[in-house]
Amino acid sequence: MKLLRYGPVGQEKPGVLDALWRVRDLSAVIPDLAGDALLPDQLAKLKALDLDSLPLVPGTPQKDLRLGPCVARTGKLICIGLNYSDHAAEAGMQVPPEPVVFNKWTSAICGPDDAVQIPRGSVKTDWEVELGVVIGLGGRYIAEADAMTHVAGYCIVNDVSEREYQLERSGTWDKGKGCDTFGPMGPWLVTADEVPDPQALRMWLDVDGKRYQDGSTATMVYQVPFLISYLSRFMSLQSGDVISTGTPPGVGMGQKPPVFLRAGQTMHLGIDGLGTQTQVVVQA
Question: Which residues, 6+ apart, have CB-to-CB distance to 15 below 8 Å?
Answer without folding.
Answer: 3, 4, 5, 6, 23, 24, 25, 26, 57
